[in-house]
Amino acid sequence: MTVLLNLYKQITELCRYCLMCRHTCPVTYVTGNEATSPHGWGMLVASVERGLTDWNEDTVNTLYQCSDCGSCQANCVTDQPLPLAINAGRADVVSRQRAPAIVYNLQVRLQQWGNPYLEVAPEKVSAQGEAALIVGAVGRYFQSETVDAAIKLLAAAGVEVVPIAVGRESPYLPNTLGLPDEARALGQATLDEIKAVGAKRVFVLSPGDIYTYHGLFYFLGISWPREIKIMEVTAFLADQLEAGKLSFNPVDLGDYTFYDPDHTLRVPNRWEAPRKLLAAISQPPPTELFWRKELATPCGAGGGLYFTQPQLAAQLAQARLIEAHERGVNTLITDDPHVLYHLRRQSENSNNNIVVSGLFETLAAQL
Known about the structure:
Blueprint: H1 3-15, H2 26-31, H3 38-49, H4 57-63, H5 71-74, H6 82-95, H7 101-113, E1 131-135, H8 136-141, H9 144-156, E2 161-166, H10 172-177, H11 180-197, E3 201-204, H12 207-219, E4 229-232, H13 233-242, E5 256-258, H14 272-279, H15 305-308, H16 310-326, E6 331-334, H17 337-347, E7 355-358, H18 359-364
Parallel strand pairs: 1-2, 1-3, 3-4, 5-6, 6-7
Helix pairs in contact: 1-3, 1-6, 3-6, 13-14, 16-17
């Protein structure tokens, strides 16, 4: 059994009667359902273990409504990794052939193509370089302009990167769906590319990638090489700006806000970097949402909800767009490519007229 499956029973035992993080769960907020709350999921998994219920269509549907955002753990005084326990519960459901049909469809696509979107294999890498950039599947197929802007910004800061994992899905998605073997395979393939490139520094485009390659890897039984430094592009650019190695031309962004993307709470204090970058190009500072920084809440781009619970994923995104509209914001800026893509799609179905823009694209236009 994996580390996850060994751990989840004791974690759910601790969480099933604890309500201390309930108020932070974005899913509970939009569903108004106690079953889809941190302690509700803990109770569900524990009840199955006790034989009080079974994995059926209703209970499996409830289990797959967790957005795997990390809010519960970030607000837990004992740092219980409940999302990992829920993911392990999903792995148990998958092994029993009780998971939603879409999960098995995605499993085949990930095994064959390395991504869930197109029947295209990841691009092969032949270049060598001291620094690499993990592009991913969404970055390759849906947000290539975000990747191009990030590469341009890194070059302006004096770093030439070799794009890797181009078209390969992050290990996060299969793991959150209950497919740890596929997660390990994708993670190892990216590590093999890093080795082939000879990179000593690896850049990523989101806090979710930091969580995946630093935190989640351990629970998948994969070791990130100690000699290779991993960093977010946003954080690196903010450091270069502060060191005087990067500058921008000013621009009027109008009434805008910065949306702290999904998984922000899994990388403590990461919210300062994008605001420093925006302050370098625009005054006054952004209008702040209530759900921001240490209160950051996801928009439904995580947890596999995009596939397994599309209506819930849309509800979470619309909640963020509605808040921005109520604050008088015209433009919402964020940096995670997956979050950017998800919010843009949802804004097209909204009456709020919120323009969703990419941080990297906004900054690159002002070099």
